[in-house]
Amino acid sequence: MLTLALIGFVGGVVTGISPCILPVLPVIFFSGTQSVRRDARGETAGETGGGVAVAERPVRAAGRARPYLVIGGLVVSFTLVTLFGSLLLSVLGLPQDVLRWAGLVVLALIGVGLIVPRFEHLLERPFSWIPQRNPDASKGGFALGLALGAVYVPCAGPVLAAITVAGSTGQIGLDTVVLTGTFSVGTATPLLVFALAGRRVAERVGAFRKRQRGIRITAGIVMLLLAVGLVFDVPQLLQRALPDYTAPLQDKVNNSQPVLDLGNLTNDQNKDLSKCAVGATELQSCGKAPDIRGIQQWLNTPDGAAVNLADLRGHVVLLDFWAYSCINCQRSIPHVTAWDNAYRASGLQVIGVHSPEYAFEKEPRNVVSAAAGFGIKYPVALDNSLSTWTNYRNRYWPAHYLIDATGTVRHIKFGEGDYDVTERLIRELLHEANPGATLPAPTDTTDSTPNTGDITRETFLGSTKQVNFAEQGQYTTGKRSFTFPARQADNTFALDGAWTLDTQSITPTGGDARVRLTYKAKEVRVVLAGTGTLTVDTPAGPRTMAVSGTPRSYQVISTANSQQGTITATASSGVEMFSFTFG
Questions:
Q1: What is the number of other CB atoms lying within 10 angstroms of the CB of residue 357?
Q2: pLDDT digits (tens, 9 = 90+) for 111-139
Q3: Torsion of CA 556, 561, 563, 565, to 10 degrees
Q4: How far is the C-alpha of 203 from the C-alpha of 477, rounded, in Å?
Q5: Given phi > 0 = left and psi -120 to 50 = alpha, else beta, which region is 488?
Q6: CA torsion, points 252, 255, 261, 262, in degrees to nearest 10?
Q7: Is residue 441 a contact partner of residue 339, using CB atoms and an 8 Å limit?
Q8: How many whole angstroms from its chain centre is CA 265?
Q9: What is the spatial distance between Cα 256 and Cα 157, in angstroms, rounded to a whole number?
Q10: How many Cα atoms sit within 13 Å of 535 on the Cβ side?
Q11: N or C: more exposed end of the chain, with fewer CB within 10 A?
């Protein structure tokens, strides 16, 4: 039990310093700054009472417990919602995302209360009967923590996966409670440090002491922005753009034997999966693929019909376990959709198994909206009971299981990365199933995590993955018009004309449109699909490429040495542009 508690705590601490914690940090910081207050009469130098100036009174840290109450509320709320929220809502017949929406409403109400004191008094009136030794010291702290715990979505990992499985299936014992509690405390520990830092700043910095009213208003605005941002998934855009700098630490925790044993429910169907070394670079044989079972609903199939693996003999199947709020999954999905687009005609069948981490992810309407936003067109199974998850003994989001044409699992990959390996093995299995098949060129499998180097990094053009875009205004999905900027920074792309921006690619709208690229490399390639032409103005003169078919890479320019350069490409209507790559 002690080992389990230690694993939960360490796993929580690593999660608590990961990029997925960033959106709540401003709220946590300002919750700490509210730990100070004026004297009992709320007076400072320069204020008047009845027209008479009063002497300055010191600002005291009267609400020293507030940071602890905020974090305590977060721990309690997150623990209860994760373990018991889904079961309670099912018993009451309520939508599975009602707790998250309730948390967002409470967060917004607290924000408004900080801005409008009279409204805050109205919120506190129902609780006026509770005895309070110092009513102004820490009010609202625990309620704020409860709200944050209901909306907080940490990064996924095996520890959290084991907790989620227990909560969703009702298999809750002392070990699960201990694991959940220690994980929550571990996650909250870095947040407590940040809250205490906010309190320290408020105590030491004169501007915070003298402008308490302004600080309260700022804190209220920050909370409202977080609530609105969470409604529209704005924080996830930030999280996707950042590299997961905690990945080495997570690997050490997640690959320890006690973690590998968490949630591993062995049965006759999945007993041979352990024959596969996770993340192997070559094909292996791991037994017959377990069934897809316990699915509540299917998306992207004719009339919602179920998909049976036994009916897919002769096809290569890629099972992608994902959850739509999982940041790791969001970074992986563009590669999965690219493989589906490239190899579906060659015999690849991608199946997304949506196994929710949290109750609000069980709502079909939420998954439908997310799948459309990610450009997912392959079948998606809503595994709300985690029946298929447990039948595969899965423990990670995302997770890929590659199944050959005979129904045998040949490769397992947990987490992000190694996309080139997965695609190479897909191609091998497709050739194995049909030796005479002609496959399209490999897709662009470069990891989109930001990196540095002495050549321009890969430049994605889709609205959800774009990098290196010159400052030309809004770059979101839909029809947009652009004009080349007068000046363009190195290693960027700019657009001119009318374009339709999709999640993965861009297409000219109603006629020719141009892309201008500044780069440093020996070779420049572009991934294109559709039907039409791409004419590129290069230092050696213009060249026109005929574009036809599924996405593949076209060479634009190649030189003996790496050099700084600029090219302008004109795309005809019907051409889809995905990315520029450099060598």
A1: 24
A2: 887 788 777 667 656 555 444 444 444 55
A3: -30
A4: 45
A5: beta
A6: 60
A7: no
A8: 27
A9: 13
A10: 8
A11: N
